[in-house]
Amino acid sequence: MATSLVLVADTHLPKRAKALAPAVWDAIEAADVVIHAGDWVDEATLDEFEARSKSLIAVYGNNDGPELRARLCEIARAEIGGIRFAVIHETGAAKGREKRMDGQFDDVDVLVFGHSHIPWDSVTPRGMRLLNPGSPTDRRRQPVCTFMTAIADEGELQDVTLVPVHR
Questions:
Q1: Which InterPro entries has this protein been placed in (predicted)?
Q2: Would you list the domain boundaries of the chain?
Q3: CATH class entry, domain 3-165
C-alpha cells in the first residue's frame, strides 16, 4: 500500500514567520507520514504538528532549545513502505556530502536532512537518496520557500516533488 509523505525542515516559528502557509498545513494534514528534519524553534509548533499529522517522524535542530531536545532525538529512523529512512538536521558541508553520509548511514535507503534551507536531491555512490526539503518559512538564497512530497510504495520512493510555498 502506498504511503504519502510530506518532508519539511527549518520551520523556525515564530522567528522566520508567524505561521506556516495554509497550503503547508493542508499537505501535512493530507499526508500519511510527515517527516520534520529539525529547527522548530517553538515548542508550540511541534505540538501543532503532532495534532495535525497522522504520523510524525521528527528530530531537533541546532536552533532548538532544551524543551524540544527533551522531546525529540538527534537522529530518527523508520521503515515506511519498505524503505529505510533516517532523519537528521545537519549533514555538514555540501562538498563530499554523499560519500560522508554513505559512511555514516550504511543501513539507510533515504536520508532526510535540513539546516541549509537549500533544497537537495541526490544519490550517494552506494545508492542512498539524500533529500533536503528546504524551508517553508525562510528561503535564504532560494527563489521561494519550499517543502517536499513523495510516495513510499513497496520499497520504492516515487514522485519526489519540491513544492513551492507562496506566502
A1: Calcineurin-like_PHP_lpxH, Metallo-depent_PP-like, Phosphodiesterase_MJ0936/Vps29
A2: 3-165
A3: alpha beta
